[in-house]
Sequence to fold (265 residues):
Amino acid sequence: MKKDVDFHKRSDEDFKDFIKKLELQALETAEERIPLYLEVGLKDADTILDVGCGSGTVTKDIARFTKGSVIAIDGSRNMAMVAKDILKDCDNVQILIGSAEKIPFGENSFDIVTCNLFFMWVDNPQIVINEMVRVVKNGGIVLASLEPDYGGKIHWPENQKIDEIFAGRVIRERGGDPHIGRKLRSLFVRAGLETRVGIGNNRIWSCEEDKSYYLHARDFYVKTLFDAGLSEEEIDKWEYEYLKSLDEKIQLNFFPQFYAIGKKP
Ligand SMILES: C[S@@+](CC[C@H](N)C(=O)[O-])C[C@H]1O[C@@H](n2cnc3c(N)ncnc32)[C@H](O)[C@@H]1O
Fold:
């Protein structure tokens, strides 16, 4: 039997910051996700399953965008408890604790099965996508939004020592797959779906947006660098240079977030 940490892959100490980060991410990525929700017909779907719902901030957007009922599932009890609180005012959402490797529903149960920022953290992605396909109706849609690919990160001016830490190393050390974005097509096609993949975020953020994101998520960045063995002095120097490049409006960051839309024949 898997433990909570096997699902969300964060220590107790990091859990609170992780919830904060998910909340910020949900806010910052709404402009990428909402067009996908419109495209797959979320508004008029009757039954939706959100797999790996985490703290439920993205589920909240899904619930607001549909007239249908939403089931949200996560393997972590602690995550599900947070989601219950965040979603307490959403009448059309029910939250379950359970593994996506064995979704507790029969075949052909949902119009849409969706997940966000999920496959990167899944131990057996092919088993999980096969399960998602099993429970979606014939003619229904499986949508995976926001699956990053750290190999496609572009950023300038660079800092080789620090960039290497954020270029997937931290994700791999935590048990995630930093190259999941490029694998989505293969996962979906092998699961028998008629598949279209794309990159959701084709807009380059302004330096003001990058700065605002960094300042909100600063604790996460500083802790990550500290845990990677950098001294306080090195972190301060890097932060000074990074913020300076943002204030000079010369910094450029691009980090591809893939999506896949699959139709069950
Ligand atoms: C990065 S979080 C994303 C949460 C949410 N979808 C969002 O975008 O805010 C990934 C979530 O997937 C859950 N998870 C990972 N593997 C799982 C599995 N096999 N079954 C169910 N949940 C899983 C974790 O517990 C975690 O809450």
About this structure: Residues 7-8, 22, 26, 52-55, 57-58, 74-76, 79, 99-101, 116-118, 121-122, 128 surround S-adenosylmethionine (CB under 6 Å).
